[in-house]
Amino acid sequence: MIYQKFMQNYRRFLACCLMIAIATILASCGQSASNKEVDSPESSLQSGNGSEEWGDSSVSVEVEVNSDELCQQGIAYEEGQGIEKDTAKAVELYRQAADLGNADAMYRLAMCYMNGNGMESEAIIGQRWSQKAAELGNIDAMVLLGVCYAGGVGVEKDESTAVEWYKKAADLGSVDAMIKLGYCYDNGSGVEKDELAATQWYQQAADLGNTDAMYQMGVRYLYGTGVEESDALAASWIGKAADLGHSSAMFSMGQMYVYGVGVEKDESLAFAWYKKAADEGIVQAMYELGVCYRDGRGTEPDYTVGVEWLKKAAAKDDVNSMAALGEAYETGRGVEKQNKAEAAEWYFRYGFRYYSGDGVEQDYEKAVQFLQKASDMENADAMAYLGLCYEKGFGLEKNNKKAFEYYQKASDLGNESSMLFLGNALILAKDENETNWTEGLQWIQKAAEQGSVASMKLLGDLFKMTGEFETSIEWYEKATEEGSIEAMSQLQFNYEHGLCTDKDEKAAMKWLRKAAEAGDVDSMLKLGKCYERGENGLEEDKLTAFQLYQEAEKMGSVKAQSCLGACYTFGWGVEQDDEIGIRWYITAANNGSDEAMWHLGYGYKTGQFGLEKDLAEARRWYEKYTSAEDTGFVEMIKDEIAELDELGS
To answer: pTM score > 0.90 for this model?
Structure first.
């Protein structure tokens, strides 16, 4: 039973490690999420009518030599080889060589655009250069282009096209491409799922010495995925990867030696592998190493060193280490002296992780267990959240009396969170007793006076509800002084619409600007629209609007991606470029932007935005729009589709 339980948990762990390894592999061609900033194209990429001046690839031998020299100089500047590192200079040299048709320079320039080396990151232009380099036979560019199509980076997502590029690169010997093909066949991404084909690609990469592929082969033998299950072969492949420095494989070897999976049990060897993996930064290995030192597994017991390793793992958010540290401080083992307060803090951290689901699967019952332990040790934070569990019925039976008891106890200890929870609970229960409102307001105000920003903002809301507008504004302003973006946005709304105060366009813009400067994406977009249209007392400034959309897009805003599409297609604040504009619309549409779907549908219907008229493609985008979550203009789109029917699409 113990072995079966271990194998079940261990296989789950390996699956997790495998997904992390695959994610790392997929990022190997450069981190290039589609929500990266796009600035105006550089002079060498200027386009007219949506096409680029790539340079003539059919240049003379003498020019080819010069382009190679330019590329090598760029590498020297980018990597600091015998010269001071200068990525901006490297980019300029790559650009010159690329314009002369040098495929390697094109690929390196693409990577610079993708990663923002020496420039602002511009995934769409990076994809352009990778396409050109791949078509000229650059293997690395083929892999990068596959990644772009697989993730919809700078181009419409197309997993089957990604597979085509991976296959071209793999056939030319690219190990990265082989691994990516293995992943595609494993998951049915762009191809029909085929575990045997996946294994064959991993096997090729492993035979060529790739440690990720070796580790993958080991996992496949452990599970019997695409091969006959064999613990011995699993240990052999994972051992090869570990010997060559694969950190996850090192940890896995430690686990195998602990439980005798494919090898004879040997706690000393397990300890040695845990130590190597921990030194490489594997968090689970740090925890296991701490336990080895604590319990004397494979080494002499050393409680102090064990606690040091547990602290290292806990600093990287390992919850098991938090629980172990709580036990260490509770018992006094491995620490200077027994410390119940410190033990309670670690137990609270463990419980709160499971309460919030931060880094672990949410588990209220486990959360309550450790919140209770910490609460029994007089930890006020634990009392507050234990009270919340009783109030909401999280992990135990709902009990308002218990909730209020814990809130009261934590509040008496000066806990801000509990004061806020208690005040909020009392206000929600005002129908049971009118005095609850007054008492609840007092507790929230007490929390606010102790510095709780959330309480300050809530007081602004509550006094607004009761019509005490002057007091409401005062609390909103106090919250803004502490950096509350929500309060800034509320003040902007109030001044814009004359709520709680007279309408004041100037004051509304002041708070809108402050919220945007503080990083509020919605405020950035709203301020951008004001500059774009010259509204709310601002002069029209499309360049500033464009820059605000860029900032919002970098923070993950899909709406900003659509706005950038408009900027490029209409030349607002940037040189007009239909191709880049359409790619931004496609990126936004793939991320769910109904506005972008409409633009694409309309563009294909009318032949605008540099698109050729294509009624079938117009219908495809319009129909995507009608199934989008935000369908405010759905009836209009239905009319557009009806018109397409009349046109015979």
So the answer is: no
